[in-house]
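Following up on my earlier thread - several people asked me to post the actual chain instead of describing it. Fair enough. Here it is, all 102 residues.
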Amino acid sequence: MLTRILGTFLIAAAALPAAAQSTQNCADRILIVERLEGKYGETRQSIGLGSNNTLIEVYASPETGTWTITATMPQGVTCILTYGQSYEALAPIVTPVKGEML
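Reply from S.P.:
Thanks for posting it. Predicted structure:
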């Protein structure tokens, strides 16, 4: 499920650089990460590379359930794409190789 969500935001990040920098949800990456960790207790849970070398990260707090998805442009500007509640880490689904038993 998280992979699908991350994939969706990787696609959305393609249009991000021009529009996102003009919003108030953008700042230097260090400031955003410090705020997520300090105020919300969120730590990086997953990472991916979007188009134009945009770094997509999912931060979350297993204790409080809050989560945030960010996009960082190559210049170091980070924007918050979305955030929410009820974060839940899922174990990977193990798919057996044809002919093998689990």
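Strands lie at 26-28, 43-49, 55-60, 67-72, 77-84. That should answer part of your original question.
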